[in-house]
Design goal:
single chain; 3 helices; 6 strands; about 25% helix
Length: about 140
């Protein structure tokens, strides 16, 4: 979908907020795309983020998906807004096996206060994407 942002400074707002997230730094996540209603966040496979079978832990996958959804929503919110997740549901479709993971956050329905976003998470090995998870989230705009 083609969305028109309320705030022309949306990209720098999203970038600045992302840089404040300690968890994203901890897992080595990067902000790869910022467009109105669309944000991609990636994270590398790291041994200290795996579960007992060596797959990237669902918590790490969910974290990048939730943040991608939130920042996709924030990109359409008015200046001075902060974003907060109020609900999400995640479907883990396959084990998180790969060298890099990308959460593609997209706004499904923007709203004045509540926005619904979706993130599909792909695992990459040899640059071949495999869909491993999908997350549907509800975000709320708060005054900053």
């Amino acid at each position: 979908m083609n969305f028109i942002p309320c705030n022309p400074e949306f990209a720098s707002i999203v970038q600045a907020s992302f840089e404040q997230q300690g968890l994203m730094k901890t897992i080595g996540a990067t902000l790869d795309r910022i467009e109105p209603g669309a944000v991609d966040i990636s994270a590398p496979h790291r041994d200290n983020l795996t579960q007992q079978q060596g797959f990237l832990h669902a918590a790490a996958i969910t974290a990048i998906a939730d943040s991608a959804c939130g920042y996709a929503a924030l990109s359409l919110m008015p200046a001075g807004s902060e974003v907060l997740t109020i609900e999400f549901k995640v479907n883990l479709l396959r084990p998180a096996a790969g060298t890099r993971f990308v959460a593609e956050g997209r706004v499904v329905k923007p709203g004045k206060t509540i926005t619904v976003s979706r993130a599909d998470v792909f695992a990459y090995t040899d640059e071949v994407p495999v869909l491993i998870a999908t997350l549907l989230a509800t975000m709320i705009a708060q005054a900053g």
